[in-house]
Design brief:
Layout (H helix, E strand, L loop, with lengths): L4 E5 L5 H6 L6 E5 L4 H10 L4 E4 L3 H10 L4 E6 L2 E2 L2 H4 L15 H4 L3 E5 L3 H7 L5 E5 L4 H11 L3 E6 L8 H18 L3 E2 L1 H13 L3 H4 L4 H7 L5 H7 L8 E4 L5 E4 L1
Parallel strand pairs: 1-8, 1-9, 2-7, 2-8, 3-6, 4-6
Antiparallel strand pairs: 4-5, 7-10, 10-11
Helix pairs in contact: 7-8, 8-9
Length: about 250
């Protein structure tokens, strides 16, 4: 019997190697806590039909030209994409989960491009399944995994530029802690062990922990974005898991 295998990808520097591996039997879970996957989960909770992640701005604009009903969302350097970057139009939404209200997104399909979150999803392209998670729906995602017990699980941290991001590692650590009994006797990567041991050190006040995070400090220093940190650190407020479907759209799992 094959031993269960648990890995954590800590930074985007590992994405190229991940993309070259045979992931056909692996389930990947992608975290971009500040803020892409939190915004995706919030949008779905508020009635969005689906989110289509794309890597580049021209790709998003081209999809909008084909289908004017699509909403465009995303950021570069943390700020909403404007006409000076697209050459034509402002995006409808940025990357703040507070923007994805039911009034704006209910029943709509959203095309999203962010600096790192969409890169992480692309890096997992060959996986058997790709889940999109956040602190908001971490318990629901964990319950989905505990029910199905995937023999090879990879938790993917989107990071910042090419570096690890503390908030993503904390989310991966929280998930490792919850599923540990299924994998502890198998092949567990050092990165998974590292994430699992870091989370308990900061779990009592995740918002305060973000003062030690590069992304957290950047958002906390911006009065317009400061409230995103508190929202993104809320735990287990959304009761569903979400998956990147074979057709390329993220949808909620009932």
């Amino acid at each position: 019997m094959t031993q269960p295998k648990l890995e954590v990808v800590l930074s985007p520097a590992e994405f190229a190697a991940l993309n070259q591996r045979d992931l056909s039997q692996a389930v990947c879970v992608v975290f971009d806590i500040l803020r892409a996957t939190t915004s995706m989960i919030t949008a779905l909770a508020n009635g969005a039909e689906a989110i289509i992640p794309v890597a580049e701005i021209p790709e998003a604009v081209a999809l909008r030209q084909k289908n004017p009903n699509l909403l465009l969302a995303g950021e570069r350097e943390g700020l909403r994409i404007r006409a000076d970057l697209t050459g034509s139009i402002d995006f409808d939404l940025g990357n703040s989960p507070r923007e994805f209200t039911a009034e704006k997104v209910s029943g709509r399909t959203i095309v999203m491009t962010t600096t790192n979150g969409t890169r992480a999803l692309r890096a997992c392209a060959g996986a058997r399944m790709i889940l999109v998670s956040s602190f908001l729906n971490l318990r629901a995602t964990t319950n989905w995994l505990l029910e199905r017990k995937p023999p090879h699980l990879i938790l993917v941290c989107s990071g910042t530029h090419e570096e690890p991001a503390l908030e993503d590692i904390l989310a991966a650590g929280a998930m490792c802690e919850k599923i540990w009994s299924n994998y502890a006797g198998g092949q567990v990567s050092d990165a998974a062990e590292l994430a699992r041991r870091i989370y308990p050190l900061m779990q009592n006040d995740l918002v305060d922990a973000m003062k030690s995070s590069r992304n957290g400090r950047r958002l906390l220093a911006n009065p317009e974005l400061r409230e995103d940190v508190r929202l993104c650190m809320q735990r287990e407020t959304i009761p569903f898991a979400a998956m990147l479907m074979p057709g390329g759209a993220v949808r909620k799992l009932d």
